[in-house]
Fold this protein.
Amino acid sequence: MKGIRRLAQHLDISIGTVSRALNGKPDVNEATRERVLKAAAELGYVPNQAGRALRSGATGVIGFMMQTGSEITGQGDTFFMGVFDGVQTVFARHQLDLVALLCSSEEDPEAYVQRIVARGFADGLIISATRRKDPRIEYLAQRHIPFVALGRSLSDAGHPWLDLDFEAYATAAIDRLVARGHRRIAISAPHDDVNLGYVFVEQSRRALAARGLTLEDDMIFRSTPNEAGGYDIAKRLLQRPDQPTAIVLINESVSIGLYRGLSEAGVRPGRDIAVIGLNSPHATFLSPTLTCFGLSLRNVGIALAEALLATMPAYQADYPQGTVRRLWPFELIEGESDDYRLP
């Protein structure tokens, strides 16, 4: 089907209403907008500016969707800044520009991405914070929008993704602690349904089971992924009559708050409890030094950008790797925080 006039005739509404609905204008009610978008998808009409730009690469802009809010980023998000640097390094080769698309923590991510697509000011998208089941993936695939996901999901549209190897991290951290005599090992986990939390918890259970141990539900400390979340974990951990002797953390910022909460109670990592976390610029200044796993965020960004461009016809000759699905490895950084050993 070609042309907005044909689409308007099919729906028996005016061309102006169809145009405003496709472009996300606020004067079109939501029911009409959904009806227009659904008909456009079913009949093969690519929505006006949005579809043409996202499929032809007309804007020279790539959007990186991330969620914001103090419960997500804490006092400052260094993770994405490192990734952005790598992404833009690749895009600069092709005179493309990266734009951060900031979805509030109070807004539905699916509704946000639908609005972004309707407005059509980007040639492709990078999505992050993938959920266990993520409707954004199916939505973008159905509309043939070039995109790559930073993170896996049970939602699978055959799309490219790159994820950090949380399975290998969980296994290596737990094996290290068990070798030091620990049996009551706790882990932290996200407070929401982001997929990395499921991956980390499930692999931690398997790693402990392989050593004849069990991860009880009350040894999983869920929190917001920030400093305040780590502080809360410390308080809850210290209130337990059977305190864990070791803990593995899933977020970079959590270790900062955990250290603060332990310190206030006179508990010292590496002496009274073993702690393993993820590396960050802030963790460098912790005392005792944090035993952690790290990676090059810039290189992650480079790989992410190249995986996206490999899906876009204008750039496939430069990036012939096809659909990328890759786990990015962590590297161990030895510290003092897990020196606490048990007989």
